[in-house]
């Protein structure tokens, strides 16, 4: 096993993560659980990394199949190895490709992405890490255009961004006839600044709901909202 790589054990699957690529984060797990509530049919995970979001969607939705795109060859291999050990492997497929070069004859019912977001930031020394965190490989405008190109007429999409980068993403959506329908502000604790925003959208200009979800209480325990979303996945939360 590569140095600094570890295994994250979930209730129904496990994932090797880190080196190459990023480690699994709490925010990514929360986003995966939340996005999976809306996923169904043919799904696309853009920038799958170790395969976290794809695996969570496959667990949550027995009728869905997921194509998981990953630009970095070594990280794509890691995701493929994870999927081979996955109980949902028949509904998971890794595609090593840049999203801008990826074409599909069929449109997707659900598209999700935990995209890179750093701009004007010092480069990471590891190429896989650099691709995973720097928006020069997938800008908000690039992601918006790719979603527009690949999303079915009645499909939905979900992204995880810092609030300032989400604003740039929304500007690109406006020119494409895509709309954000719901935002969930992720906080460390109830009175903390916004860490990330989980956003869900479609081609429908519907009411934009916005609310907050703290990961922990002021006392430092996991919040009720966090526990209920992650209960199907985290071993520490009994079913």
Key terms:
239 residues; alpha/beta; two-stranded antiparallel sheet; 7 helices; transferase; Small_mtfrase_dom; Methyltransferase; SAM-dependent_MTases_sf
Q: Overview of this structure, please?
A:
This protein is of the alpha/beta class and 239 residues long. The protein has seven helices and ten strands. Strand 4, helix 3 and strand 5 (92-96) form a beta-alpha-beta unit. It starts with 5 loop residues before the first strand and ends in a 9-residue tail after the last helix.
Task: Detail the topology: elements first, then pairings.
Layout: E1 6-9, E2 14-17, H1 26-36, E3 42-46, H2 52-60, E4 65-70, H3 73-84, E5 92-96, E6 108-113, H4 127-133, H5 140-150, E7 151-161, H6 163-174, E8 179-187, E9 194-202, E10 209-214, H7 224-230
Parallel strand pairs: 3-4, 3-6, 4-5, 6-7, 8-10
Antiparallel strand pairs: 1-2, 7-9, 8-9
**Number of helical regions:** 7
Helicity, as a percent range: 25-40%
Largest sheet properties: 8 strands, mixed
Strand order of the largest sheet: 5-4-3-6-7-9-8-10
The gyration radius over C-alpha positions equals 17 Å
Mean pLDDT: 91
CA-CA gap between termini = 31 Å
Share of β-strand residues: 25-35%
Helix and strand run? EEHEHEHEEHHEHEEEH
Helix/strand-derived category reads alpha/beta
- Total count of strands: 10
Poorly predicted residue ranges: 118-135
Shape category: globular
């Amino acid at each position: 096993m590569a140095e600094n790589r570890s295994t994250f054990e979930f209730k129904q699957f496990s994932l090797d993560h880190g080196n190459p690529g990023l480690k699994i984060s709490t925010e990514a797990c929360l986003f995966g659980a939340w996005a999976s509530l809306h996923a169904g049919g043919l799904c696309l995970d853009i920038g799958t990394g170790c395969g976290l979001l794809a695996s969570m969607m496959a667990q949550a939705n027995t009728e869905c199949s997921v194509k998981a795109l990953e630009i970095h060859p070594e990280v794509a291999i890691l995701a493929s190895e994870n999927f081979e050990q996955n109980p949902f492997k028949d509904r998971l497929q890794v595609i090593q490709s840049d999203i801008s070069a990826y074409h599909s004859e069929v449109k997707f019912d659900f598209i999700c992405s935990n995209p890179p977001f750093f701009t004007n930031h010092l480069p990471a020394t590891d190429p896989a890490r650099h691709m995973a965190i720097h928006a020069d490989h997938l800008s908000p405008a690039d992601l918006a255009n790719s979603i527009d190109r690949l999303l079915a007429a009645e499909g939905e999409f979900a992204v995880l961004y810092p609030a300032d980068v989400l604003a740039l993403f929304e500007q690109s959506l406006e020119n494409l006839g895509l709309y954000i329908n719901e935002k969930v502000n992720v906080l460390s604790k109830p009175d903390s600044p916004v860490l990330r925003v989980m956003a869900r959208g479609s081609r429908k200009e519907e009411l934009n709901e916005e609310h907050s979800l703290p990961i922990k209480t002021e006392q430092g325990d996991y919040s009720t909202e966090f526990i209920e979303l992650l209960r199907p996945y985290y071993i520490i939360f009994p079913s």
